[in-house]
Design goal:
alpha+beta; 5-stranded antiparallel beta sheet
Length: about 500
């Protein structure tokens, strides 16, 4: 009774299985059992068709796959077990992919006399695999013809794939680039920085974004920009990185060329300013020199006549000393202005000092043309900014030069330099007695080579270069359109 019950339970399990289960009698391959519900649902034919005709199952195997079905049967008869995957044609003409397991049973004589098997519908799995395959083939095709290097790594940064262009940029074959070997072509000076950047990226699951160099044995040093994003599984764990590299060698070369040209333009602008100030500087130096020479002659005569007393000597020497200091200030300002500070570190320096040294270079020029120069410095000489002093001086001289040209022939001629501070900012205001800049011109004044001056008097580079300098100092250079006169303001961060 118990055995009969267990048999019935087993039969019910088979009958209600999602897979088609069946038993064949050998050697005719005659169907002697199949679970009706699942088999008819899987193939769409009444189960009687299979019982009546032993060859019916083979007739509905896809013609291109019949050899696979026969091969599985033969293997099962040889080894006792077999598996196969092939297509069957359902009654409605649609195709179903099956995964089939076969097992041969022996009788008491040790001969195979039954084959039991089950057929599982794996159509969806097959479609997914096909889509994945097609996607991979599409990726490979796109990657191989992409105009950018593409790579894939494991979470530790070991390369698992690179496309053809990546290999060409790095100077390796695609096989040589796999694993850790890709790192051998990184420029020695960049290796530690690349490893450190990748370690930080991996530890924080961030995007990788870094520029470094490859030592390509054929084309030399190549500058590359590399970007990668993490790929995560369903649990959020990073399983790989996919990224690109772009050869930016030509861009770097262009930037270096542009930097060199910029330096030449800055130097040219400096020389232009010096040319305009030359006569004033010469006069500013010649006057105190004549004073020193006159004082020396006077002292010499006192000595020759024996009329030199102590008080006269001290008074005259003090005059020589103060006049020499005046010349020294001009020379120091000139030296600071003319030196190339492009690669200098930013230094803390007194705001008043920068302005005073700059004014020494142009004060005489303004005086020679009867232009009043008004100066309003900060009360505290200790207020400082982080800057390259010669560059700030160049900006100030450019603004003063523009003001000079604007008021030179006006009936009222004055230029004012005023320093103002807030809690975080320094403002250098350069205002002149002009009536301002026309509205239609204001938007263009910072453009390179734009000038309102007559031909031969301006290059149109001064304000453009000045704006670039102030931008590098984390500040702003702008025109104050609300002023009743012509006013430019330099805004710079105060030193903390």
């Amino acid at each position: 009774m118990e055995e009969s019950s267990e048999t019935e339970i087993f039969k019910q399990v088979i009958e209600n299985s999602f897979d088609s289960a069946w038993v064949l009698s050998l050697p005719q391959f005659q169907l002697i059992y199949a679970n009706k519900k699942s088999t008819e649902k899987l193939f769409g034919y009444p189960i009687e068709r299979f019982y009546e005709n032993p060859g019916f199952w083979l007739s509905i195997v896809h013609p291109e796959d019949q050899h696979l079905a026969m091969k599985a049967n033969k293997e099962c008869l040889l080894t006792g077990n077999a598996e196969a995957r092939y297509r069957m044609i359902k009654s409605d003409g649609s195709i179903v992919w099956l995964f089939i397991r076969l097992c041969a049973l022996k009788n008491h004589l040790g001969e195979y006399y039954r084959i039991i098997g089950n057929s599982m519908d794996v159509t969806l799995d097959h479609l997914k695999e096909k889509q994945l395959r097609e996607s991979e083939e599409l990726f490979q095709s796109l990657a191989n013809f992409a105009p950018i290097g593409i790579y894939r790594t494991d979470p530790e940064g070991r390369s698992t794939y690179v496309n053809k262009l990546w290999a060409e940029i790095a100077g390796l074959s695609q096989e040589e680039a796999l694993g850790d070997d890709w790192t051998k072509t990184i420029h020695p000076d960049d290796k530690e920085k690349v490893f450190s950047a990748w370690k930080k990226t991996a530890s924080q699951n961030e995007n990788f974004n870094f520029e470094y160099r490859f030592n390509n044995p054929e084309t030399g040093t190549r500058y590359v920009s590399s970007r990668a994003v993490p790929i995560q599984d369903t649990d959020g764990k990073v399983i790989s990185y996919v990224g690109t590299i772009e050869d930016i060698t030509e861009r770097i070369k262009s930037e270096k060329t542009l930097d060199l040209q910029k330096q030449k333009l800055v130097a040219s602008a400096k020389m232009s300013s010096l040319g305009e100030m030359a006569s004033g500087i010469a006069h500013e130096i010649n006057n105190p020199l004549m004073i020193i020479i006159g004082l020396c002659v006077r002292l010499k005569r006192f000595i020759e006549r024996g009329e030199l007393d102590h008080d006269v000597f001290v008074r005259e020497v003090n005059k020589i000393e103060s006049t020499s200091f005046r010349i020294s200030k001009i020379i120091n300002g000139l030296r600071a202005f003319t030196r190339n500070s492009e690669n200098d570190q930013m230094n803390l320096i007194s705001v008043n000092q920068i302005v005073e040294e700059t004014l020494e270079l142009c004060r005489q020029r303004f005086a020679d043309h009867a232009i009043e120069l008004r100066v309003d410095l900060l009360e505290s000489p200790d207020i400082k900014i982080l800057s390259r002093p010669s560059q700030i001086s160049q900006v100030l001289l450019n603004l003063l030069g523009n003001s000079f040209d604007a008021v030179e022939f006006l009936p009222e001629k004055w230029v004012e330099v005023k320093l103002v501070t807030s809690s975080k900012w320094l403002f250098i205001e350069v205002t002149d007695s002009g009536n301002g800049i026309p509205a239609h011109v204001v938007d263009k004044i910072m453009n390179p080579f734009f000038t309102t001056k007559e031909v031969g008097k301006g290059t149109g580079l001064g304000l453009s270069i000045s704006q670039g300098i102030i931008d590098e100092h984390k500040g702003k250079l702008f025109y104050d359109a609300e002023s009743s006169h012509t006013k430019f303001i330099v805004q710079l961060p105060l030193a903390e």
